[in-house]
Specification:
single chain, about 60 residues, alpha+beta, two-stranded antiparallel sheet, globular
Length: about 60
């Protein structure tokens, strides 16, 4: 699924600052959890994110990751 969001949009969605999102994204990139392909964020380790967020096994249609 492709969704166009800015770091500010993400920050508002999760209730934090743009700077906080920038730090988190940089850390996730450094740990190879995500990468970038042009303007897109590529999730490279979905299991890590699901475990970190204590995510259930919801269908992809309703997944909020």
């Amino acid at each position: 699924m492709k969704v166009q969001l800015t770091n500010q949009d993400i920050a508002q969605y999760i209730g934090t600052t743009r700077e906080g999102v920038n730090r988190l994204m940089n850390e996730l990139k450094k740990e190879n959890i995500i990468s970038y392909d042009g303007n897109y964020i590529v999730i490279r380790d979905i299991k890590f994110l699901k475990d970190f967020l204590q995510c259930g096994d919801c269908p992809v249609e309703v997944c909020t990751i």
